[in-house]
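Collaborator request, handled under Task 6.
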Amino acid sequence: MKLSDGIEWGVHVTTLLAVLPPDSALPAARLAEFHGVPAAYLAKHLQALSRGGILESVHGPRGGYRLARPAAQISVLDVVEAIDGTESAFRCTEIRRRGPAAQPAAAYSLPCGVHRVMSGADAAWRASLRAVTIADLVETVARDAPPAGLAAGAAWFQEVLS
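Structure tokens returned to the collaborator:
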């Protein structure tokens, strides 16, 4: 499975927005600047996150984006599904019903083994992402990020929000 860049960007953006002071917002251009990604491409993902109820758009001179609900109520899976949708990465096309061993459809009462394995893997992957919230990631970043990076990020915030 290969996830789009938008997934990584969306999770990073929501994690960054989780540490904003209340009633603050960051414009798409500033979010792109902070992460060093193209603003136009990021804007598309920010819109998807807004449509998915993860972010809300704030209009006006101090406008931009902020979380639509508390970070502890947003799972990583919520972000993934807002950007890439809820459909499984695996699509069963029932190839076992083709070729020289094919039987009438009625002969296949159970999903094929490949379908079951892939569905189980998808369910496990989604459960793992559902178990981690954006608030959890904020704690991880605060604990694991290099101190100089945290200081530079804090200085950037101070500049942007003042």
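The cover message to the collaborator said: "Strands lie at 55-58, 64-67. Residues 5-161 form a domain with the Arc Repressor Mutant, subunit A fold (CATH 1.10.10.10). Please let us know whether this matches your experimental observations."
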